[in-house]
Specification:
Layout: H1 12-21, E1 49-54, E2 60-65, E3 90-94, E4 99-103, E5 139-143, E6 173-175, E7 179-184, H2 198-216, E8 223-230, E9 242-248, H3 253-269, H4 273-284, E10 288-291, E11 295-298, E12 307-313, H5 325-345, E13 352-357, E14 371-376, E15 378-380, E16 383-384, H6 389-394, H7 403-412, H8 418-427
Helix pairs in contact: 2-5, 5-8
């Protein structure tokens, strides 16, 4: 046990080993490397087999199959009759906040909470043809039918601003160029991300890595965002377990603010802000929830949400493609444990958002530090936190739950993690399963 008396903390010798060569000594990726340009591993490095296909309306669909389930997907055709897809959106600049807003009116017609028998994310069968032509699958990624951004976007505004004085660019518009993809985690409609096996999560990670690399090659995409919305309370319109990937044509406001803070900190100290936060949280231990040889999960000191956990790799990397194979394998276990602990806190559903913060494609990659933020609006059984006046109008959060108490709750529950420990033992992972 470390001298700190906190068994979930990584010993100093392990931190030194990570600094020297990454988790398990598997090598360090260049912090400034762009995806696909010197990153640690390829798109499907742990064994997932990738097959590109096309849907009936021309949208791209990609199968990621695990080795045991590898099948020839090239002959599986989408039997639906669909018009050619030409979605488009427009970006409007909010000059007061200096932020872009996407206007995508076609999304008003998107599918909304269909019955299970008509789920568009389930495999196709003899009575229902879905977005996925195969009768079964592991992980699938496809272009969203109702995207917020599109590679074929053009300015579609029909507002007449001809009588306005627009010399100062107060009504600036641009095409809503970008990419929106859906990631189906499993063919099982009744599953959840937390119920997946570590092997399946590794396949999802392969898909995230592949899509981050691919979208980053597009010269008009500036940031890639992988995320999951879970639960009707969050606003999910399809209950099948899935996430999304956005390729933005700009750097998002939250990322710009984070990087500005990191730049100020680096100028003042010569150190990375995110790395300093991880070190401080680890040394304190008061808000640490789970820690392995590769990852650290903690409730942030200034948590905005009733249940909020941030998950960082123990070495600074800019994005998912920069993770080593050992870090990806360990992530599959730690991520599942974090979700299962969050679900076990309350005897109620866990509506949540899981958001991957990756470096922008081309700028400030040395300042960035890959991390995942998972947060829930559940504040008690039967009670939700709503973003009302202070949060929505002023961006000033008030949290009813003390972050230290939230961390205690997350550490005190006893989720079923036997499969995660067994997986770690099978792969010889160091120090997994040292729980508080």
């Amino acid at each position: 046990m470390p001298a700190s008396g906190r068994p979930w903390l990584v010993a100093q010798s392990d931190r030194e080993r990570q600094a020297a060569g990454g988790c398990g000594g598997t090598g360090r990726s260049p912090v400034n490397a762009r995806p696909g340009h010197g990153s640690a591993a390829g798109a499907a490095g742990s064994g997932a087999h990738k097959t590109n296909t096309v849907l009936a309306d021309g949208r791209e669909l990609i199968y990621f199959d695990e080795p045991a389930n590898h099948a020839d997907r090239t002959k599986i055709l989408d039997r639906r009759v669909l018009p050619t897809s030409h979605p488009s959106s427009t970006l409007r600049l909010d000059r007061i906040l200096d932020e872009w807003v996407a206007i995508a009116g076609h999304r008003q017609t998107r599918t909304y909470l269909p019955p299970d028998s008509e789920c568009p994310l389930c495999p196709s069968n003899s009575t229902h043809l879905s977005e996925i032509p195969a009768t079964d699958y592991d992980v699938v990624v496809f272009e969203n039918r109702f995207p917020s951004f599109s590679l074929g976007s053009w300015v579609i505004d029909e507002v007449d601003n001809s009588g306005a004085n627009n010399d100062d660019g107060l009504f600036t518009t641009e095409p809503g160029f970008g990419r929106c993809e859906v990631v189906c985690f499993t063919s099982d409609h009744d599953a959840a991300f937390s119920s997946l096996t570590p092997a399946r999560v590794r396949t999802v990670i392969d898909a995230w890595v592949d899509r981050t690399e691919e979208l980053s090659r597009n010269p008009k995409i500036e940031q890639v965002f992988c995320f999951e919305n879970r639960g009707e309370e969050i606003g999910v319109t399809l209950s099948h377990p899935h996430g999304q990937i956005y390729g933005y044509p700009y750097i998002t406001p939250r990322t710009k603010q984070m990087l500005a803070s990191a730049r100020t900190h680096a100028d003042a100290t010569g150190r990375n802000l995110f790395a300093d936060v991880v070190t401080a949280e680890t040394q304190s231990g008061e808000r640490v929830v789970v820690q392995s040889s590769c990852w650290t999960a903690f409730v942030p000191f200034a948590a905005r949400w009733p249940l909020e956990v941030h998950l960082y790799p123990n070495r600074q990397v800019p994005d998912l493609p920069s993770l080593t194979e050992e870090e990806r394998a360990d992530l599959s276990r730690v991520y599942l444990e974090v979700l299962r602990r969050m679900e076990a806190v309350y005897d109620d559903s866990l509506p949540y958002i899981a958001a991957w913060h990756q470096a922008p494609v081309r700028v400030d990659r040395d300042l960035a530090y890959l991390h995942l933020e998972v947060f829930s609006i559940r504040r008690a059984p039967g009670k939700l936190k709503y973003l009302a006046g202070s949060e929505s109008a002023m961006g000033a959060f008030v949290n009813d739950v003390l972050p230290e108490e939230a961390a205690k709750l997350l550490r005190s529950v006893t989720p079923d993690i036997a499969d995660l420990i067994a997986d770690a033992e099978e792969y010889g992972a160091a120090q997994y399963g040292q729980l508080p």
